[in-house]
Design a protein that fits this description.
InterPro entries: Phenazine_PhzF-like (IPR003719). The chain has 289 residues and is of the alpha+beta class. It contains 6 helices and 17 strands. 21% of the residues lie in helices and 44% in strands. Helix 3 runs antiparallel to helix 5.
């Protein structure tokens, strides 16, 4: 048996073929069991690999599962946008290319719509709670000055994946972060869950720079573009009263993958995350029998 896959860059920058967050999407993976899904995600070793396990292409709907190299995720932003691109392309083979796609995943049904050059998702409603740590404690884990952490600017936010969102004073503080893995596990995490910490700062009235650090055991990884964290940031801003605005997020410079994420918050507080999706390759693998 062979399986078809596609490689895409999500949240890419127009004109830069090595920008955005890489993604692998398996087109038809309904025959694979959980162990095989995890094994293929580990084989490709990207931040996430998605698997379309069932699809109604006439309705432009699909069931999707998302795996890192180590575990399954209930939701993630760049896999959602990249998978929507593939589902729409598969649907177009039998008729008109759809302008919207609905993906069902463990976190729920996620509507995704086409925008110029890419796709945009509507985030689920979020819950938020403050981090019970002082700015000095947070700064010590991040390896930056105490004054670089905005007082009251650290919150746990969950719009599908709970992450710690930490506002810093400026772009220099974001760039200077050198997190301590032990500190992430001990100070900036919850029991039984690997830490995911998103640091961000305003760089203008409607522009933000950010970084996402994820700890897995003793290893520390930095994501080039994190749609789930952008959704959480948008939800945090909406809950803080900042509505009716659009924000451009820059991420990935420190890992050599410059990325652009477009965040929108409407007057009702609904959050949208979008970006460019660029297909860079495709192929097949032998899945065995």
């Amino acid at each position: 048996m062979t399986l078809r896959f596609r490689l895409l860059n999500v949240f890419s920058v127009d004109g830069d073929p090595f920008s955005g967050n890489p993604l692998c999407v398996f087109e038809e993976a309904g025959s694979l069991d959980d162990a095989q899904l995890q094994a293929w995600a580990r084989q490709f070793n990207l931040s996430e690999t998605t698997f379309i396990t069932a699809a109604d292409l006439t309705a432009a709907e699909a069931d999707v599962r998302i795996f890192t190299a180590s575990y399954e995720m209930p939701f993630a932003g760049h896999p959602t946008l990249g998978t929507a691109h593939v589902v729409a392309d598969l649907a177009a083979a039998g008729g008109a290319r759809p302008a919207a796609v609905t993906l069902s995943m463990p976190a729920g049904r996620i509507p995704v719509e086409r925008i110029e050059g890419g796709w945009r998702l509507r985030a689920s409603a979020a819950v938020s709670r403050p981090l019970e740590r002082s700015p000095a404690e947070v700064a010590a884990v991040l390896g930056i000055d105490d004054a670089s952490v905005v007082v009251g600017g650290a919150h746990w936010v969950d719009a599908g994946v709970e992450q710690l969102i930490i506002e810093l004073t400026d772009a220099g503080a974001v760039a200077a972060c050198t997190p301590d893995v032990r500190g992430l596990h001990g100070q900036l995490s919850v029991p039984g869950r690997e830490p995911q910490v998103y640091v961000w700062a305003w760089t203008g009235e409607s522009t933000v720079t950010s970084r996402l650090f994820a700890a897995s055991g003793s290893a520390l990884e930095e994501d080039p573009a994190t749609g789930s964290a952008a959704a959480n940031l948008g939800s945090h801003l909406a809950l803080s009263g900042r509505r009716g605005q659009q924000v451009t997020i820059s991420q990935g410079a420190q890992v050599g993958r410059p990325s652009r994420l477009d965040l929108a918050i409407d007057e009702e507080g609904t959050v949208f995350v979008g970006g460019r999706v660029t297909e860079v390759g495709s192929g097949t693998v032998a899945a065995g029998t």
